[in-house]
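Team,

Forwarding the record for the chain on the shared tracking sheet. I've put the sequence and predicted structure together so nobody has to dig through attachments.
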Amino acid sequence: MTNPLQFIQQVRAEVSKVAWPTRREVLLTTAMVFVLASLTALFFSLVDLGIRSGLGAVLGMFG
């Protein structure tokens, strides 16, 4: 078991090895997440609308 000072030094050494993204990379990936989430929501909304319309038409023929 290491003492707290050694632990903090080890943590700082490991954190310095991390390749941090630039501000531009963060903004670009955040925008892509929002765009893809919106496209996915639109796709599933259209699929849901199609299934609901198809099911309504099938049930309307029998009811």
